[in-house]
Amino acid sequence: MGFKLNAKNFNNALEKLSQNYNIYAPKVFVGKGRSSETDMVRYGQVNTIEEIEFNKKSDFSYKEVLLPITQTLFYFTEDSFSEPKKEVKDAIIFLRSCDMHSLKRIDDMYLNNGFEDMYYKRVREGAKFIVIGCSESFENCFCVDMKSNKTDSYDAYIGFKDGEVYLDVKDEYLSGIFGELETESLDVVPEFVEENNVRVNIPSNLDPKVMDSDMWKEYSQRCIACGRCNFVCPTCTCFTMQDIFYKDNEKTGERRRVWASCEVEGYTTMAGGHSFRQEKGQRMRFKVMHKVYDHKQRFGYNMCVGCGRCDDICPEYISFSNCVNKLNDAMDEVK
Fold first, then answer.
1. Of these four, 113, 168, 238, 318, which has the most CB atoms within 10 Å of its CB?
2. What is d(CA 269, CA 249) in angstroms, rounded to the nearest whole number?
3. For residue range 127-158, what is the model confidence (pLDDT) as tens digits?
């Protein structure tokens, strides 16, 4: 069902929705950028459409709403444990098409990978997703080649132009909320990117022997193993565990799940001190092959959705898309 309404009426709808939902969207955090006196666009709670950033790509993805950077799994004492209470309100999340595609990849890891993660599942099941239209490609995006530039798997689509809000609503609850307002019914066609400046060409016959290529040695010199590329990626899902013991009673505490990165030192360290992939180039190889080979072998499609955030964030200007394009030459090298 399509609706057209002004910003004021849309804000009235958000006010009604906020009674039962926490509403998250990309927003500008003034002065919180990577350098002094710069801003950052990342996800936070919003109350009005004016707070939502429509014209810039978010530096971080929406995944920190579903998978918090630090998440308490349970509290423990000497002889018992208890789970934290579930958030009273469910979530409504504004996101772009590439991120909507990444949701399927996160589901693969947390729901369809031989088990169901209860902490993720209970947040995921109650969430609703509103896709933001993209009229043109952002810098470093290559979503078209990754086939994530379009989607119809949303609860609602939103476009915002000249103070007017255009909605294509599929969810019954959302339709009821917007239908109560002063709206104009019309057909709304979602606006999606058709072309990117950045192109990628993943070899159709990609051979795992490419792992032996010399191309990875370059990244041992360039990569500083900061892990930023993993943390901004909407499809990276790795984590580690931390047990926190309270100072007032060292026999009580909590276990936390914390984001981790396959690029950083210590990620592969085992009991006894043995560690795999000590060279940074080997870590880059693992990440790249996981995104464009391993996941596809298991689930039938690439893990990467082409959002380009890894290229945006890298302090060493390492381009993931360029790395993928080098795989074609690497294939010839290892034949």
1. 168
2. 30
3. 999 999 998 999 999 999 999 999 999 999 99
Residue 229: in which H helix or E strand, if any? helix 228-232
The residues, ordered by sequence, that sit 6+ positions from 131 with a Cβ below 8 Å of its Cβ are 94, 95, 96, 97, 100, 151, 154, 156, 157, 158, 190
DSSP character at residue 292: I
pLDDT at position 154, please?
96
Q: Select from 87, 93, 107 the least CA-distant residue to 65.
A: 93
State the DSSP H helix or E strand holding residue 92, giving kind and residue range, or none if neither. Answer: strand 90-96
Residues sharing a CB contact under 8 Å with residue 285, sequence separation 6 or more, in sequence order: 211, 216, 219
Taking the alpha carbons at both ends of the chain, their separation in whole angstroms is 54
* Cα 197 to Cα 137: distance, rounded to the nearest angstrom: 8
Identify the CA nearest to 243 among candidates 87, 115, 77: 77
Q: Count CB neighbours of 70 within 10 A.
A: 12
According to DSSP, residue 290 is labeled I
Specify the amino acid at residue 84: P
Collapse the DSSP code of 4 into the 3-class scheme (helix H, G, I; strand E, B; otherwise coil) and give the result.
Answer: strand
Angle between helices 118-126 and 97-110 (to 10 degrees): 140
The CA distance from 320 to 284, in Å, is: 9
Q: Say if CB 25 and CB 41 are below 8 A apart.
A: no
Strand partners, 184: 4
Q: What is the DSSP string of 133-176?
A: P-SSPPTT--TTTTT-S-----SEEEEEETTEEEEEE--HHHHH
